[in-house]
Amino acid sequence: MVQVEIAAFFTVICLIISLVFLRIFWRYKSLKKIVILGVQGSGKTSFFTKLCYGHKQKAYTSTQLNEAVCCFFPGKKVILVDFPGHLKFYHLFSEIKHIRCIVFMIDSSSMIKNADHVVYQLYRLLKDARSKKIRHILIAANKEDLFTSLPCTKISSIIEEKLSEIVLFRLRGIAEIDKEIDDDDDWLLNSEKTIHLNNIEGFDIAVLTGSVKNDHLSPWTNWMSRFF
Q1: What is the mean pLDDT of the chain?
Q2: What angle is formed at CA 167 by the lines to CA 162 and CA 169, rounded to 5 degrees?
Q3: Pick from 18-32, 139-153, 162-176, 198-212: least confident
Q4: Position with higher pLDDT, 206 vs 188
Q5: CATH number of residue 76's parent domain
Q6: Domain check: are 16 and 95 in the same one?
Q7: Are residues 2 and 85 in the same domain?
Q8: Residue 26 and residue 36 in one domain
Q9: Is the dihedral of CA 107, 111, 115, 117 positive or negative?
Q10: Residue 2 and residue 73 share a domain
Q11: Same domain (yes/no): 127, 216
């Protein structure tokens, strides 16, 4: 009789523990995600660790997703995902679910030198975000504290010019091969065959400067807080 009671007791305890873990798991799964992407050296991981753990991570090359539950919005939890900067890991983006918004981080001090690489990565991101129906994208221009950093207007202008070059080059190439091929890049263009970040169909895109080094994160966190 005693053995039966002990067995029943442990069964109840195991059931309670299982239910608690199941509840925690489903609450975690239901949380929305903010994904931080960008090129290597832009400050993604430092931004991620500052928001999640209160300190800045020394620069290093990420080779896997970093993910953590953060409470930097008062009373609200969100899953923050730090995405590797190297393009060989970009295929992992398709595996991330429940994305509420995206932070695309760039180095504003080297934008002119690295514009082609940065904008090509943004171009790929826009196409994939459109297919996943992700509307809100922040282009976070880090390192505003450096002398060579550019203002938002100049960064926007460079991105728009380079995006237009990519899209028009691809459209011309496809037209020369086969005029019957459908290509969806024309949704990026306006009626004048140019691109303006503030009126790309289906997107809400902002460009804001800040500095992880100087803890000037409020332009970015204020933007992120709009969606939670």
Answers
A1: 81
A2: 95
A3: 18-32
A4: 206
A5: 3.40.50.300
A6: no
A7: no
A8: no
A9: negative
A10: no
A11: yes
144 & 182 share domain: yes
**Residue positions counted in the chain:** 228
pLDDT of residue 139: 98
Which of the pair, 158 or 51, is modelled with greater confidence? 158
Residue 8: give the domain boundaries: 1-30
Residue 127 and residue 219 in one domain: yes
For tokens 């393009």, the residue is 87
Domain count, the chain: 2
- Record the tokens describing residue 172, joined without a space: 């011309």
Three-class secondary structure assignment of the chain: CHHHHHHHHHHHHHHHHHHHHHHHHHHHHHCCEEEEEECCCCCHHHHHHHHHHCCCCCCCCCCCCEEEEEEEECCEEEEEEECCCCHHHHHHHHHCCCEEEEEEEEECCCHHHHHHHHHHHHHHHHHHHHHCCCCEEEEEEECCCCCCCCCHHHHHHHHHHHHHHHHHHHHHHHHHHCCCCCCHHHHHCCCCCCCCHHHCCCCEEEEEECECCCCECHHHHHHHHCCC
pLDDT, position 3: 54
Contact 102, 32 (CB under 8 A): no
Same domain as 74, residue 161: yes
CB under 8 Å to 78, separation ≥6 — which residues?
A: 31, 32, 33, 34, 69, 70, 71, 72, 100, 228
Furthest CA-CA distance within the chain: 85
